[in-house]
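Appendix C: a fully annotated inverse folding record. The material below is reproduced so that readers can follow the format used throughout the book. The structure is listed first as tokens, followed by the designed sequence.
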């Protein structure tokens, strides 16, 4: 079994069945004329040979990948010129795919993955366009004046590995606009979850019963009177009151009135008989909403 490296060109007529159904005789004549007047001479001029003909397509082999690409461009330009004088519904448009790879040689025929990939690349091409593999693009991109637009990895029929495809940009053609693909459903679902949680949390927070300061019982610690000999200092009684206020403020059950506000409630001087009572007295207020009382001893 002989093998060799070759550039394979695959060409296929777009809408062949529709053309034959609409005008069988006329379509056959135009295809035959195009093959004899354009395809066969151009392929031969670029040192290639046709090794398989189908009703709506053909396969050709080239020893040079540069020749294969130049031939494909010449074929598409020639078809465009011929179609200019033909009504729209009678025009022959062709897709072309080119691959560089090893092929199996059996007489005049060629087989193998190199041929199969070329046929699949042809299916990826636009009508009137050319699609090539990454190997072809690397070999000719610095040798020819044509542009090559990457199409990314393409999963094609009966080929295990994805194929890197490139579109040949001909004169007058603009690069394809990338299609805006919709994100997968799981991405949309994942994005919706935090939004739903935020909405739910906001709803619960709005209607959740919460206690405000006005609902809580309030307690005030009155200033202590120091009846000792050093009462003119006053720092000891102030420190005790401050400590009690600090400890009570940690409670979640009562709202403690600030010391500056509660100190004004004790205006009358204490009498000796009531010093013990005044030193530990506190004032409690009722919660406006609960109407509950807090007793003081």
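Designed amino acids, in order:
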């Amino acid at each position: 079994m002989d093998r060799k490296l070759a550039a394979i060109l695959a060409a296929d007529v777009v809408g062949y069945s529709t053309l034959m159904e609409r005008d069988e005789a006329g379509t056959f004549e135009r295809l035959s004329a195009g093959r004899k007047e354009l395809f066969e001479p151009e392929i031969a001029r670029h040192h290639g040979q046709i090794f398989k003909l189908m009703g709506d397509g053909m396969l050709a082999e080239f020893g040079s990948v540069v020749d294969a690409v130049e031939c494909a461009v010449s074929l598409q330009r020639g078809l465009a010129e011929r179609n200019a004088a033909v009504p729209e519904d009678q025009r022959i448009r062709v897709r072309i795919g080119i691959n560089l790879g090893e092929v199996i040689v059996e007489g005049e025929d060629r087989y193998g993955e190199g041929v199969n990939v070329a046929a699949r690349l042809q299916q990826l091409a636009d009508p009137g366009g050319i699609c090539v593999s990454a190997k072809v693009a690397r070999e000719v991109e610095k040798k020819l004046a044509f542009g090559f637009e990457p199409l990314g990895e393409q999963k094609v029929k009966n080929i295990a590995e994805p194929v890197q495809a490139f579109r040949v940009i001909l004169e007058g053609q603009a690069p394809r606009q990338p299609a805006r693909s919709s994100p997968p459903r799981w991405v949309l679902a994942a994005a919706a979850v935090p939004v739903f949680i935020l909405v739910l949390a906001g709803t619960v927070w709005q209607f959740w019963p919460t206690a405000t300061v006005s609902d809580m019982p309030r307690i005030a610690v009155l200033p202590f009177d120091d009846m000792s000999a050093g009462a003119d200092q006053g720092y000891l009684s102030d420190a005790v009151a401050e400590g009690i206020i600090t400890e009570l403020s940690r409670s979640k059950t009562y709202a403690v009135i600030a010391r500056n506000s509660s100190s004004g409630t004790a205006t009358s001087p204490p009498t000796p008989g009531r010093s013990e009572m005044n030193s530990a007295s506190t004032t409690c207020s009722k919660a406006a909403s609960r109407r509950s009382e807090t007793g003081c001893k």
